[in-house]
Amino acid sequence: MPETPASQPSPELPLPPSSLVEEVPGGVRIAMRAERSGCLITFLTAWVFGWSIGAFLVARDLLAPSDLTEAVLLTVWLVSWVGFGVAAAGMLAFVLDGREILTIDGGGISRRAEVFGIGRTWRWSAAAVSNFRADGAFLSFDANGKHVRTGTNLTTSSAERIAEELVRRFPGLG
Question: Is the pLDDT of residue 125 over 90?
Answer without folding.
Answer: yes
